[in-house]
Amino acid sequence: MDAMAHVERREEIGIDEFVRRFLEPNVPLILAPSHTSHWPARQDWVTSEGLPDFGRLAALYGAEQVPVADCDTVYFSDQQRTTMAMSEFISQWQAQTQRLYCKDWHFTRSPSSYQAYAPVPHLSNDWLNIYYEDLGTDDFRFCYMGGHGTWTPFHEDVFRSYSWSANICGEKRWILVPPGQTHLFTDRLGNWVHNILDYDQRAFPRLGELKKFEVVQKPGEALFVPSGWWHQVLNVGHTISINHNWSNEFNLQRMYERLAQDLGNVKHALRDVTDMDGFDDHAQLVLRADSGIDYRGFFAFVRHMATRYMKLCAGSPPPAGNWTVDHVDSYFTSPASVRRALEKIDSVLTLLASDPDTPKISGGLATEISCLRSEIKEALLVTH
Ligand SMILES: O=C(O)CCC(=O)C(=O)O
Ligand SMILES: [Fe+2]
């Protein structure tokens, strides 16, 4: 049986309803084009026929080096990637001899001061980008562009983050798979399926049992992709999108659970050397290399955000008046939201503190967690 469910589409929706019905329960939603119609990119990057304005894109970004995938060449669980000048990519895109896809391009790092968009208020509570912007080391804000048939293989997003995707032009066909079904798309060697629309039935005999959602995202629409939902994306016509990976208090526990699960896998892979000196610190090193973050890194992220919220509790205004990363909606920094964020942080810290691996990590992580928990408790008392 191939169960298929629908993604809801909404023209108007209050942020509180979005939080209660979609963000917290972790359910996808499409927001109507009216949510992005004011974005400069939706006028400037697109012709009046709704096609990419190649000349304008080349003028804005032609000299930039951009990451480009060859959609017809598998490379491990991904596609073969290279880097080229945007002007070269645009020529190849127009020639359409290959399915080349400019993807995961960190376009906001471009020296061009051009502000192409501003996050949709509902999708603006973006701790991941706030944290990395504060650190100045990375970002998770991307642009994707490519012709008809360019696509992204089946995957789950980094750190079990949410994603949002807004189409500047063109359409995307999404297949979204709710969490808890990994066993249906993993083969006997532990590899997951690459292309859910074209696969070897013998290797994945139960794939047809997947419960999945399918949706075609139209020009201007913004899709909320929940945390831990696997997905595959196929572009229909020339397509450009702006996407963020993001996370916040509502998927913090999922992030932690993913990390704990990844650590379990690392320790299993290293099981023959469990007796070696410093095994647990070594396992953290491998975790960081594989998953992009380790327990200490996760704690640093949580502490950074907790500290920001505690300052809000103490009555200081949000930095620069907008809590940064191009404006988090004030709904998420209201006293009730601040309280809820700190409570959710505290409950994840409880899990981290009682994780049997935490006390094994050198450098006193367990003590730092308990100090932070006391500070949060105090801050919550002040705000009653
Ligand atoms: O649009 C694409 O090709 C991939 C987007 C994606 O995977 C995401 O936004 O998480
Ligand atoms: Fe993704």
Strand and helix map with partners:
Blueprint: E1 4-5, E2 8-10, H1 15-23, E3 29-31, H2 40-44, H3 54-61, E4 65-75, E5 78-85, H4 86-95, E6 100-105, H5 127-135, E7 141-146, E8 151-155, E9 162-177, E10 212-217, E11 222-225, E12 230-246, H6 252-269, H7 279-291, H8 295-313, H9 335-354, H10 365-383
Helix pairs in contact: 3-4, 6-7, 8-9, 8-10, 9-10
Bound molecules: 2-oxoglutaric acid and fe (ii) ion.
Q: Tell me what portion of residues adopts beta-strand conformation.
A: 15-25%
Assembly category = single chain
CATH-defined architecture of the largest domain: Sandwich
Output the radius of gyration: 22 Å
Q: How many separate helices?
A: 10
Q: What molecules are bound to this protein?
A: 2-oxoglutaric acid, fe (ii) ion
Determine the CATH topology of the largest domain: Jelly Rolls
SSE string, helices as H and strands as E: EEHEHHEEHEHEEEEEEHHHHH
What is the helical fraction, as a range of percent? Answer: 25-40%
How many extended strands? Answer: 12
According to CATH, the homologous superfamily of the largest domain is: Cupin
Mean pLDDT: 95
CATH class of the largest domain: Mainly Beta
Shape: globular
Q: State the separation between the terminal residues, measured CA to CA.
A: 51 Å
Task: Spell out the key features of this protein.
Jelly Rolls; 12 strands; twelve-stranded mixed beta sheet; 384 residues; 2 domains; binds fe (ii) ion; binds 2-oxoglutaric acid; alpha+beta
Task: Describe the protein.
The chain is α+β, with helices and mostly antiparallel strands and 384 residues long. It folds into two domains: 4-246, Jelly Rolls, CATH 2.60.120.650; 252-383, no CATH class. It is built from ten helices and twelve strands. Strands 1, 2, 3, 4, 5, 6, 7, 8, 9, 10, 11 and 12 form a twelve-stranded mixed β-sheet that branches. Strand 2 (8-10), helix 1 (15-23) and strand 3 (29-31) form a beta-alpha-beta unit. Helix 8 packs antiparallel against helix 9 (335-354) and helix 8 (295-313) runs parallel beside helix 10. The longest helix is centred in the C-terminal third of the chain and has 20 residues, at 335-354. The chain is globular. The model has no long low-confidence stretch (mean pLDDT 95). The chain binds 2-oxoglutaric acid and fe (ii) ion. 2-oxoglutaric acid binds at residues 144, 152, 157, 163, 165, 172, 225, 231, 233, 241, 243. 2-oxoglutaric acid (AKG) binds at residues 144, 152, 157, 163, 165, 172, 225, 231, 233, 241, 243.
